User: What shape does this take?
Amino acid sequence: MKIKELYSLLQGQEGINLELREDVDYSYVFAGDLMSDVLAKVNDSGSKMILLTGLANAQSLRTAEMLDISVVVLVRGKTFREEDLEVAKEANITCFTTDMLMFEACGVLYSNGLNGVPDDIN
Amino acid sequence: MTLIDKYNVVADSFTTAGKISSKIKDILKQLGVPSDKLRKISVACYEAEINMIIHSDGGDISLFIDDENGMVYLHFDDVGPGIPDIEQAMVPGWSTASEKAREFGFGAGMGLVNIKRVSDNFDITSSSEGTHLKVGFQL
Assistant: This one.
């Protein structure tokens, strides 16, 4: 799924870096608020992965940066602070907000063909 | 083994957590470390940096490269209360993280487990004076 479709399906708001990687076809989603759980799934799928989280601070962006995840979506209408957005800008991470609840956002993406992160391939 | 750089970690510096790991990732990327290895090194570095911020009174992260053996090493040396029971700390899901750490998305009890999983060498010692973690990665 391309970023434009993702933004539209999730009724995205306050997007930054949306113009980056317009051609990337995203395939996987990891949904969670505990970053070590995300970090536990390190594998080669990061560049095609979307992180859905309610963690609206720099640590969700840093986690994405470490795993080469290029899209972070904040659920439940949360937004990043200006200083946190600097991390996204430096690391070229696309991020936006949706008013959807985590469950709802997962359901929308799943029913449109996105999958969970594949098993660790290490 | 060559020391590339050494960084100071400040206890409770939650808002800037990950900055050192980001810097180390950049350095290794410039040195041509392949992306799959880089991700593993970054995960270990970030988890250990967070652990120092959450649990210690501060310390240092040192980055070494061993060209002869094709290895990258990270040493994490902190002062602080140490880990009373390392075996228990290695159990997935076990955590003593504070409420503040949880607010920042940590405290899943997967930190040391993740570090061990992604590294090729893992050595940890701890006393009431601090913790010393050495991890190595084959390139």
